[in-house]
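look at this:
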Amino acid sequence: MLDKIIHFSINNKFIVGLFTLALVFMGGYSLSRLPIDALPDITNNQVQIITTSPTLATQEVEQFITYPIEQSVKSIPKVVELRSISRFGLSVITVVFEEDVDIYWARTQIAERLKEAQDRIPKGFGNPNLAPISTGLGEIYQYVVFPKKGFEQKYDATELRTIQDWIVRPQLIGTKGIAEVNTLGGFLKQYEITVQPDKLKSMNTTITEIFEALEKNNENIGGAYIDKKPYAYFIRGIGMVNSMDDINKIVVKNNNGIPILIRDVASVQRGSSVRYGAVTKDGKGEEVTRMVMMLKGENSSEVVNSVKLKMEQIKKSLPEGVDIEPFMDRANLVSRAINTVKTNLIEGALIVIFVLVLLLGNWRAGLVVASVIPLALLFAVSMMNLFGVSGNLMSLGAIDFGLIVDGAVIIVEAIIHSLHLNPEGKLSSKSMDEKVYEASVKIRSSAAFGEIIILIVYLPILALVGIKGKMFKPMAQTVSFAILGAFILSLTYVPMASALFLSKSISHKRTFLIN
């Protein structure tokens, strides 16, 4: 069958040329769509369940939250590992699935089990939530929200946190490829009601009544409608508070017809929730920062570029005196890694081409063999895009051009040797095709076995599992794709190009050996 492929390629040069051109276009398109990153993502296929309960100690978190959830998710099929962490006010459960499990199917299964677990968790002890669909390499962009010079007194850490949560984040969260936007630093603004026990006792009021009053007087209620033809008037009860003054005016109870307000038994003030950390910059004070998490499987370069474009729009909506400055950009790391790969590939290709032309002794033959390098790379990129292998330092940086051109060198060398044996020195077009065919067929087994042996070397790497497999499989896959492409080209493109471009007039040179 291989002999027939070589014979067809030599006698149908136009068709093989069209297929080669199609490979160039397909490879170029795949290269533009190839996910680019600095390193392979070695995070396993996992879903995290996070539950916060600030009032519970570690033992209660384990007993009332972590254990019931673990018992509910144990029955999910294709679970590889189940681990948990219980801390003061926090429960984190990690469910690891098999690598071939769809992450959205896994999250659906866990969401169904969480409904069962919530029946076992006491009311008010916490509401379990699923973590964003991201990985250990999901941190792609971090920035700081800060006041400009002259506005430091106007915007403190609380105001900056509020701007971040209510202006920046809502606009940024809708960007394609973003899984989550997390805030670090600042104070989370909240309104605090400080009860004064003496006044509470003197007015015969309890804290429970204050809680009930706040709950009932902080909501809008819809009613029916009044039909006044040709108009209909809908009735609404507006009760949601909008300011601290509204909170002060809430009625707690009536005492002998005299309303007791919140301000009569307590003081209302602006405060902040309890926090467990802070962010500082250059030792000059506290800052408000944000971490953008990328959705699992997305192209980090494209997502970062989308975030940058969105940031330019968000800056226009910020209050006067507030600005945003990035301090961690994943695109810089990816750019440096890809530039390293490009430099290595270009330098390696030039060295291989120089050696080929020098050793083959024929510049046309050297260029024919050298042209296999970009074509094999385009084939490999097409396969990488098809099988979901990202372009990174491990996958692209492991390509060896010497291995790629091995089969082409053997075939072209055999063709040149065959032409040197022609006693006439000149060949017709027909006899040229025949010589190329005979030489290619004669050496075809040697070239094929050489490339197959090289492919066999990478089979153990393809068999790796876990973190080692995620790290090194892209390398083995990319090299295998490139060698496979070079093998196909050595049976089709190389014989065709040799018959078309190699000189039909071979000059014989006398060589002398000096001992």
About this structure: The two ends are 47 Å apart (CA to CA). Confidence is low (pLDDT under 50) at residues 506-515.
